[in-house]
Structures are given as C-alpha cells and as structure tokens.
Amino acid sequence: QPHELVTPGEEVNGWGNPMDLFDEPFPDVSTYEDFHTIDWLREKSRDTDRHRKIASRSKESFWEFTKSLLDAWSGWVVMLLIGLLSGTLAGVIDLAVDWMTDLKEGVCLSALWYSHEQCCWTSNETTFDDRDKCPQWQTWSELMTGHAEGAGAYVLNYFLYVLWALFFAFLAVSLVRVFAPYACGSGIPEIKTILSGFIIRGYLGKWTLLIKTVTLVLAVSSGLSLGKEGPLVHVACCCGNLFSSLFSKYSKNEGKRREVTAFTLRSINPFGNNRLVLFYVEYHTPWYMAELVPFILLGVFGGVWGALFIRANIAWCRRRKTTRLGRYPVLEVIAVTAITAVVAFPNPYTRRSTSQLISELFNDCGPLDSSRLCDYVNDPNMTRPVDDIPDRPAGPGVYTAIWQLALALIFKIVVTIFTFGIKVPSGLFIPSMAVGAIAGRIMGIAVEQMAYHHHDWIIFKKWCRPGADCVTPGLYAMVGAAACLGGVTRMTVSLVVIMFELTGGLEYIVPLMAAAVTSKWVGDAFGREGIYEAHIQLNGYPFLDTKDEFTHRTLAADVMHPRRGEPPLAVLTQDGTTVEDVEELIKETDYNGFPVVVSRKSERLIGFVQRRDLTLAIKNARQKQEGVVSNSVVYFTEEMPLLPPSCPQPLKLRCILNLSPFTVTDHTPMETVVDIFRKLGLRQCLVTRSGRLLGIITKKDVLRHMAQMMNQDPDSIMFN
C-alpha cells in the first residue's frame, strides 16, 4: 500500500512547522573563512536590507528613532576615533624614533628622554656655528672616557653604534616572530589585497597593531635602510579595524568594514605626505626651460633604478621563500643590520637618519647654513639679500660632500634591495626618496657649477648671467626623489601632488611631472608592475589589478570548471538531498560553495549556497531543531516538498540560498568576465546556457588564466 503523502504546513508525526526556525539568519551565517574572498554583492545587499529595517523601525517609537540616528552617526564617530588614535601613534612613533636614533651616538644628561636636537634647544651655551654641540649632550666616549676626539673615542663610539643597532633590530625581529608575524614588512601589498575583498584574519588585529607600533620604532631606530610611512598605513588600518568592530554596522559586514579602511587611507594619504612636511622647503629661484633636460635625465635614472630594484628585490625575496634562507629570519635581520651599521658609521650621510639626510639634501643653501653642502666660496663684497644669493664656486666642503654622497648612493642602492622584505616593519618611501635625492643633489651641484664656470655656453647664455642665482641644487634633489619614488611605485599624478606639498609653489609642478612621467615610462619598459604589485604576485594574493589589460580572445567556456575530462560539477538539488548527502559533499570537497539546481537531470539553476553557511546551518539545526537526523531531506524551495509520513523532520535552508547568483553564458568573452570580476568584486560566477548550469569560474580561475595568457606560471596564483 503506497505511503500517504503530507501536504505543506500540516502537523504530522509531531513535525510542527519546520519552516519557522530558519526564516531568520542564525549566528555566524554569511561570515567567511580565513584566506577566502568576500562576496561584495552579497555584502551590499545585506547592508541595504539592514538599512531598510532600521528605517522602517525608526517610525515605531522614539527609541528606535534614536537608534537609527546613532547608526547614521556611527561612521563619523569611527572616523574621529581612528584619526585621534592614528595621529597619537604617529606622533609617539616619531618622537621615539628621534630619541632612539640619537641614543646610538650619545645621551642627554639634563633629560634622558631628550633627543640630541631637543637637548641642545634647552641649552644656553650653544653657538651658531656649533648649534648641534652643547655640554648637556655627550657622546658615549665622552661619557665613559671623558674624551670626545681621538682614535680610542672613535672606535668606542663606532662599537656602541653597531651594538645599539643590533640590539634594536634583534628586539624588533624577536617581537614580530613571537607575538605578531603579520607585523613585518610594509603592509601595503596586503592592505591592497584586503581592500579588494580578501580575508586575512589577524592582519589588522590588536596584537598586530601593538607589535607593529613598537617594532616600527625599533626597526627605524636601528638604522636599517627602511622608512616608516608604509607601516604607518598598516597601523592606521589596524586602528580602523579596531574601532569598526565596536559597531555592528561594520563588524557584521565585511564590505562596510573595508569602506572604513579605504576612507582611512584617503584621509591620511597612503603614501605618507602628511609626514613629508618634515622636508618642507621654499625655493626663491624659478626654474628654466633648459633645466628640463637634467630633470628628464633624473626621470630616466629613477625609472632604471626602480626597475632594477624591483627585479633584484623580488629575486632575493623569492630566494628567501624557496631556500633555507627563509628558515632563519632572525639571523638574516641581524646580518643585514650588522653590515648596514658597520658600513654606515664612517660616512656622516649614512650615519644619520634617512629623514634628516633627505631634509638636508632638499635644503636651499643660505648664508647661515653650516652644512658641507653649503661650503661655497663667498664674495666678501656681496650685498645681495639673503634669499637671493648668486651662484658661487664650490668650496672644498662641497667636493668632499659629493664624494661622500656618491658612496652613500651606492650603499643605499645595494643595501635597500636586501632590507625591504626582511621580517621587521619596513617601508620603502624614504629609502627610495633618499636614493633619488642624493642623485639629484649631485646633478644639481654639477649643473650649478657648469653654469657658473661656463655661463657663456649657449645653453646657459640666455638665462644665466654672471652674478645671477640660476640653479637650485635642492630642487634637483626633490625632482630626483620624485623620480625614484615613481620608478619604484609607478605613481604619477598622486606623486606630483605629494611632492608639490613640499614646496608650496605651483611653479615646480612641471619639473616634477616631467620626472615622474619619464620614470614611469622608463620603468614600464622593463615591466609594468610596481613594487607592491610585484610582492602581491610573489605572495600569490588573489588581487585583480585594474591597470592590467586583458586583450586575448578567449571565452568563459575556456576557463570554467569542469572542463573536458574533469569530474562533474558538485551541485545540490532543491529538494532531493539529505543531510547526510550534504555533509558527505562538504567532507569530500574543499569548494567554497555549491550551485543549487532543480534536479540533476535538468541542471536548471536555482541559486548558490556558501559552504560555510551550509555547515553552520546543519550544525545549528542538529542542536536546536528536534527530529533532524542524517536522512532528513534538505530543501531550498519556499514550500515543503511532498514527503511520505515515515520520513524524518525535513530541513528548510532557503534563507541561506542566494537566489540571484551572477551568471554569464559560455560564449561570454573573457575580457568581459575579467571586467565584471574587477568592477563588481565577484567571488565566483556561474556559467549557463539557456538557464542550464554548465560550470563555474572563480576569482582564482580568472587570475590563473590571465597568468597563463602572459606566459607566467598559473600555479603561482595561490596564496602563500
């Protein structure tokens, strides 16, 4: 006798109404596993639904109206808190770096927490010529032996300089390795990847914030060829993530959380121009058209240096990843620090902090400057105003400085290759600017002396008369810094805006743009990717760069899975799968989700369900809904299917089903598919023909295909 069928909604065998329990989302649904990509469309839809509910409830009572106002203002509160904490941390880092950098050379007896400059500010016993010398500040040799000069004092200061550097570096790498491995590096490649929708749990966490802040001070103070601007971006984004978690509007939506991070970057400028005002200068001489030639040459140098650095640094980092070298990060940091400190100390331009070096190179020499770079032969009869000093012949101090700067340039070029990427916080902006500023200052002095000694040459005759202030070497240093930074990062317009803020004058936009564009063109001739994109590719992050062009004539059918010879696509049916079948499918596969079809015969697409949501739903149902067992039917339809009365309690999971997954046809050009993934931030899209499911394309499939089309290893597009 046939089993009697049950119509939807009836209470049979004590089932009750099985559709009530999961009509509302349950805890942890719609969350993501670590190292997975978020679904931007889904997050946007969830935020729209949340906003719609708040708006409708705000009319019910005064309390609900107040809650809606608090929700609307939460974004501004988060931004205020981020700004306050980020600014405070940046200030503390700057003060600590200044103090600890000077600690390698000596100590302030009047106040141990004062840097060299602060110590002598408070002294009444300094002279103008020796403004950096005061009895309150003593070098280690003065403090220990009572002698400031002589071979013994030099050796003692040298030894303690290296010792302090090694101590700071060892402490930094140890803290990173033990407490927060994600605190190493600049953080910008990972931040770009996270903003594109990739999940890296803990990368913006509290421990990472704390350890990155502390070790950034230690790493910069050690004298390594690195900067703090890139890591400060990471610190600011950690602040954004920290305060976002306090508000459900952001903590429960990965898309909204990324908005706060992105807004933080736009507000603080991700490339550190709020700190570059340290180098603010004001030039009093206009530039001339003939100077575009050396400016463009600096652009060529910046592009070549950028391409050389990217290739050499990536090769070294790849070697670190694939050989035994990567097993000894502490030893590597100690070795690089030791070499850096030993080579840097004898040269005054490498001994000081890189920020101080850049500031001096950018400076326009005045009559009161005591720097060697300003040791010109002055005319005793000169009566010109102090801001209009004519070009003068270089004195012995200038020539000594040029040789020291040339050695510093070679040193910076080589050591930065091996420093960027070691297991301590390390930024690249300041070292890159230092390389360009050194090259620019040397060229500026060369052009200045040529103009002075050969003012009758045709190239100088029209614009550089004898006794005129024709050439500003500091401007060349700034243009060189922009060129090298552009060569490494491949920025143009944003870079010019940053450098423009250094001068306060619009007249230097053209030289900066000429150098930046030239460096990008030259760099692109060797390879289109900047240093951060190169590290993203090296680490296998699933990042789709908007600058990459895809012009190949392949179709979605060429990229989708399954392909010919591969197992069929793992799918769920809308009402013909049991709990045991679903659990077995989850156990045997590692897919992020599964298409739901009407039946395996028709393959008509209904929707898409995430793997994590399925797992949580079944776990939740077994705990809270009586009667759900392994052979319970799972259904995704609105109405319960007709089932025999002997069947156990069915499980409705329609609430976790995405009824509008993004689909393309099998004949869609891959150029269009790539654009869709870029602009919509898709995690995957399904391939259909006349409504029938054929396959699936994931973000990693797109990245692998693009790599294959560029003759690269497609298997390298894996998170490592």
TrEMBL record:
Pfam (any one): Voltage_CLC
Gene Ontology molecular functions: antiporter activity; ATP binding; voltage-gated chloride channel activity
Domain of life: Eukaryota
One GO term describing the cellular component: synaptic vesicle
Annotated TM spans: 73-93, 158-183, 287-310, 330-349, 401-421, 428-447, 475-500
PROSITE patterns membership: CBS (PS51371)
Subcellular localization, as worded in the UniProt entry: Endosome membrane; Membrane
Domain CBS: 560-626, 657-716
Assigned keywords, A-Z: Antiport, ATP-binding, CBS domain, Chloride, Endosome, Ion transport, Membrane, Nucleotide-binding, Repeat, Transmembrane, Transmembrane helix, Transport
Classification via InterPro entries: CBS_dom (IPR000644), CBS_dom_sf (IPR046342), Cl-channel_core (IPR014743), ClC (IPR001807)
Membrane topology designation: Multi-pass membrane protein
SUPFAM superfamilies: CBS-domain pair, Clc chloride channel
Predominant location category: membrane
Family membership noted in the UniProt record: Belongs to the chloride channel (TC 2.A.49) family.
Protein name: Chloride channel protein
